[in-house]
Amino acid sequence: MLNELLLRLPILGSKLIDYDDFFELIIRFTINFSVVLILIRAIYYPINRRKDYLVTFFLINIIIFFVCIVMNDVKMNMAFAFGLFAIFGILRYRTEQLPIKEMTYLFMVIAIAVLNSLAGKKVSFAELMLVNAAIVLASYLLEKVFLLKHESRKSILYEKIENVKPENHDELIKDLRERTGLDINRVQIGRIDFLRDTVKIIIYYYEKNPQDSFNDESTYVSNKNE
What we know:
Blueprint: H1 2-7, H2 19-48, H3 51-71, H4 78-92, H5 100-118, H6 125-146, E1 150-158, H7 169-180, E2 184-193, E3 198-207, E4 218-221
Helix pairs in contact: 2-3, 2-5, 2-6, 3-5, 4-5
């Protein structure tokens, strides 16, 4: 009798607990978090090593998941919810130059949160698991099987500005390879400072060890006596 009274006790206009909905929430969150954990921690992070994005992806996924769960009671349309949170995720990071790969992972964690939280009764458990597994498998194959070479980049300050001329492109690549010891496959010329005789160059090379691949800190390459 007491248990029934407690279950019916109104708190903020709702029941104290609904066991069916509560256990469904736990199951949905477990599936959602497991998928994101595999996708971000086991696939994305070992290759990219971006701790700032690692935290961001997890928090955005969790927040959107719970917001969708709560708003699902007002019969929110899934297409509207998916579009709303996808646009929110993209517009929120317009103040920062988000790399295309990180933007893709951001979109995926948003999509996973929406799918796992708002999948209705018409979507079977097997279908939901298949969708999650397909996202994880596709990410794994693209990151670690098909794309065997991982291109990394470094931003350097280079003092031989005469080599940035188009006709000296081969000489520029050769000089950078000798002085950095990296197998450079392409370069991007940035700002040229004629007062200091320096030019900012982004060099792109294939990293043998993908765990140490990302390094965008400025490096000064010079053979002058300083």
